[in-house]
Amino acid sequence: MIRSLITLLSVLLVSTSAGQQDPLPSWNDTETKRSIVAFVDSVTRSSSPNYVKPEKRIATFDNDGCLWAEKPVYFQLLFAMDRIRELAQEHPEWEDEEPFKSVIEGDMQGVMASGEEGLLKLVGASHGGVTADEFSEAVSNWFDTARHPETGLAYTDMVYQPMLELLAYLRANGFKTFIVSGGGIDMIRVFSEDVYGIPPEQVVGSSLEATYEMRDGEPVIVKQPGIDFIDDKAGKPVGIHRHIGRRPIFAAGNSDGDHQMLQWTAAGDGPSFCLLVHHTDEQREWAYDRDSHVGKLDKALDEANERGWTVVDMRNDWASVFRDR
Amino acid sequence: MIRSLITLLSVLLVSTSAGQQDPLPSWNDTETKRSIVAFVDSVTRSSSPNYVKPEKRIATFDNDGCLWAEKPVYFQLLFAMDRIRELAQEHPEWEDEEPFKSVIEGDMQGVMASGEEGLLKLVGASHGGVTADEFSEAVSNWFDTARHPETGLAYTDMVYQPMLELLAYLRANGFKTFIVSGGGIDMIRVFSEDVYGIPPEQVVGSSLEATYEMRDGEPVIVKQPGIDFIDDKAGKPVGIHRHIGRRPIFAAGNSDGDHQMLQWTAAGDGPSFCLLVHHTDEQREWAYDRDSHVGKLDKALDEANERGWTVVDMRNDWASVFRDR
Questions:
Q1: CA distance A117 to chain B (A)
Q2: Structural domains of chain A, ranges and CATH numbers in brackets
């Protein structure tokens, strides 16, 4: 009797508040928003033929260019360069060695010219050779002080308000939200819980080799310079399989690096929703797609158009871009 | 006002039901049980100096010998051998090749004599070369039909009732429960949700290499024969770091394979609880420790005694062993 009363009151409270609030206020009332809401309704309403049990409501989100900005280059690269400059005092040999020389001189073109091999060296030297705790602290300090070269904003303020609302909306509807990023897992975990509401155990990303060691009688996890896993392109479904072990029913990305994740999601047995964020807003953010050196969106855009995946037109679909502060 | 009423009624209901039910009925009223309850109380009571926020209540459990039995050998090896025999028709060359020859002839000693290299061949041939979906189906079929050679029980009925209660008790107290096993992640995921209440995304284990491929226009994850990661011994803290990204405050194991996981847990900044299941019951299960070829418990037992970790004496601490049916 008491339990029934509680149930009744809870239902009243929930339906009242649901009727009052738009869960996606930063999304304009366009077809994009309506398609998201219609999908969520169709998989959560118990009478729906597309109903999906809560434990299977897995949603995966790319990070760079999907949850936060990625121009002029991936923020992780900016962190790596700042960190190399910080560590350069202990490495006088870097003055004559690429890509370190270019990093120290602030020559982005030189850094890019060092190619994939150069970038791997940079990642190894800036992310490896420290304990996991030391690395987290370095990232955390960087976020506290570094500012974006064009907007002057803290990097964690360059996350997209509409996507924050989308994450919260999905969670309120029983979804478990994951990040599945080509970026480094240990870097994203430093801010994902505070900023996105996504706990470390729901972050999938690229990683370095790691070892367990005793130092002065205390165990530590040491990040090694070698790459363990690249969670990008065909690596994304593999990373999803490895970490989540269940196919998403909702996946969001913005580039060809997300193409296979969206394919994998769309090929599931039940209902699915694939979203691509298309950067079309050079006023409030940046406009780029097929020819961009970061966040190149080409083949995935073609497939989205062919298969009717939802493409966010940032300029028209979003009422605001960066997160409210 | 309505909200306050609900809160009040909820508190009444919860405290009433808590007073009525023992959450660990298969645990005898010994020091072991009392130490578990005291720890959980100390980290969940908001007025406690050891209070831990819910998002940091990470609990990790070994599987073989901790959540289910592991004698006469790891159940995964029994699956592998059954599967090799099933696949042998397509591999006439196995008749003259170890360890396959011994497997086909049912010669366990011969299998063991093939050493680590032989076991890796066995794992590669029995677990690799199929899609992840095909593998899950093979495991699922095996669980439906295979029976333990000594007890005649289904393998999923050889899980420990007291540990099921412990998992549920921790979850009811805001813990997130994970499996961290040396066994194969894709095998455990087939039954972990149904049997342990642990979803696939909370299973950490050893894995094979995997690739993403298109077959007849459909994307698949293919399990390759090569080993990707061994989640055992020093690999366990690494696997925890990689998958969970947060240090456990509660860890349970039963062998030296869990030693580093327990060390890592105990070395955290805040309160922690380390549990070792000691197999002391040759009547209801098996009795073994320092000299066993599976589940060898030697160094971890010494450290448990030195550091006051809780050691379950299966014979005296558990009122029942295998799960209620």
A1: 23
A2: 25-72+154-317 (3.40.50.1000), 75-145 (no CATH)
